[in-house]
Amino acid sequence: MFRAMIFKELLLVLRDKYALIALFVLPAIFILIMSIAMQDSFTNKNIEFTLYIQDADHSSVSQSILSKIEKDKKIHLTKKKETAQFLMKIPKYYGMDLTSKVDIDVMGILKSDQINAFKGMLLENILSARLNGVSQNIEKNSPLTASILSSLKISTDTIFQVHYNSSQNIPNATQQSVPAWIVFGMF
Question: pTM value?
Fold first, then answer.
């Protein structure tokens, strides 16, 4: 009885070309589309920001910060406020006062994760510039300490190690779309 039922269903499916397309071609197209749509979900290669800087300090520390930001390939400095995503204001006496803060204005509509990514990139540059300034000040009294400080590299890659489900490998687009396959398979 069960065997006859399976045989009958197979005959119906094999005679119906549209059913075959729905069974085999549509899931393949769905997987392809979902893989393309999700290919950049875990990468930060395409993260780039435009920044306009107002430097009221003009000290060696602020100039060092500017040079670090100019070298950063993911932050592009712009000459016009209107085209910038972020506006950074370096206050007067920033180089002398270690407690003063840099003001950041978000000029457009950005998601909070984009703002946090920008703050992380900017933090790398500011800390690196501050560390270089401290090592230059210490160099007179302790050259060994100054050389150790100047050799330190501040980067999120050296500070953090990100794991994806106990693995260091970033899931590819096909692996990310597995839940979509399951949902599609239910239908």
Answer: 0.58
